[in-house]
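From the pipeline queue, job 12 of 40. The input is one protein chain; the requested action is below.

Action: predict structure.
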Amino acid sequence: MRKLLVYLRGYGKESILGPLFKLLEALQELLVPLVVAAIIDIGIAQRDTGYILRMCLVLIALGAVGLASAITAQYFAAKAATGFGKGLRHALLAHIQRLSFAQLDALGTGTLITRMTSDLNQAQAGVNMTLRLLLRSPFIVFGAMAMAFTVDADSAMVFTVVIPALSVAVFVIMLLSLPLYRKVQAKLDTVLQSTRENLTGVRVIRAFGMEAGEQAAFDARNDGLMAMQKLVGRISALMNPVTSLLINAGILWLLWRGAIRVEAGLLTQGAVVALYNYMGQILVELIKLANLIITITRAVACGNRIQAVLEVAPALTSPAQPPAEDAAAPAVAFEAVNLAYHTGGDAALADITFAAMRGQTVGIIGGTGAGKTSLVSLLPRFYEATGGRVMVNGVNVKDYPLAALRAKIGVVPQQAALFSGTIAENLRLGKPDATDAELWEALALAQATEVAQGKGGLSATIEQNGRNLSGGQRQRLTIARALVRKPEILILDDSASALDYATDAALRRALGQLPQTMTVLIVSQRAASIQFADTILVLDDGRIAGMGTSEQLLETCEVYREIYTSQLAKEDAPHG
């Protein structure tokens, strides 16, 4: 957590002024009992109305100064804490963006979302409370005890007994409850994960009629959370009665001793009231301090979890300068490439070797889990090859700056992902400075012109993840987004699976009209989508089972022949 305090840089003034103004407020609070004692001992005892009024004005002044100090302290503490949260949030998101897909897979989406939201908010709240109360509460406790000794040292001896007893009671309860709070947080994470899975997979749950089973599982997790919360609640509930018992015992002792000394003429009535007020201040501040420590402990735990993500070193290195390219080299070349997602795991790709020249179209086909998406993910370095070399224009992709490499590539992912905003804003993710004419041109190539026109044009609103669009409409817009940038290499990763055959055929004809310098890699489950490619790669269990044109593969590759005949033979069959 200490390493995260670097994000308070730029807020040094606020980090100092916040606690200082809190101490000024505390000082006003410590002076109040003395003023009240003076009102009792002088104003009321001597029936001096003028003195009472003057002291009341002093109390009002102390209250006003204390209020102004508290508001000022809160302002500076909140400014520093929100600045800390802003800086940390930006740094965390920027760091996550630099991680490879393999690292993101290992960390998990749910974990990263929790770190960005709940954990970060807890850390920010911890900074805020620390700046406001960490100095104030001990200052009040020891200041009240010191002031009590200035009032009457003999009666104030009760403070030397009550304060340690209160401290022990508060901190024992806190030490018992803190581990349980961590367990509560862990069970809450489980409940949140279950909720997320149920909401994300609600269609699957309903399709298989698993509502009752999922509800029972959720109830079990929720009951576990409730039981743990009740246990920690019972322990925490001891705080008030135990501290109240101790403080009231101290007050009884104080009043008893004070009455004896007042009767003996050694102490005034106002002094007894002042001592009573100081005892009450100590009780309030010790409870505040205990709650503050719990808050800080949670913040530190959350900060450590955030720090663990920040300490994950990005696996991808990126040279500063772009390399010299070979104009005569293939646009894309794989040289004995291997890929394993986890150390010691089975290879997802093994000994992949092929090349594609500029302007060529390469079709990639194979069964589910054959490694098609894994193969094309190596080009933009979403994943790193664990063996062999992946070449673009005669240069190893590892020798390109990441931004320069990905600027050459347009990717249409397997899952069509759109963002909330307008159609134009989504398309300009591919090319921020694209003109409206370029956007309409890309929409026409992607067979998405009618989609945009039907929604109201380029300014039409797209809801989160494109939920106001059909699957085919989302796919066509993601294809248009990739085409806007006119990339050197276009990757279509099963991007036409939701399109009907007529639209798919029209899209293939449009892709055939692309500039002759653009290399296209088409991943598809449909033989019809890739049968006219210049070269077809047939993958089977992560290896190349065949390579060539459709006609050649029908003669030489059993895997391709099975796929082709199972699909196209049915389509060509006469319908009765």
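Job complete. The first strand starts at residue 332 and ends at 339.
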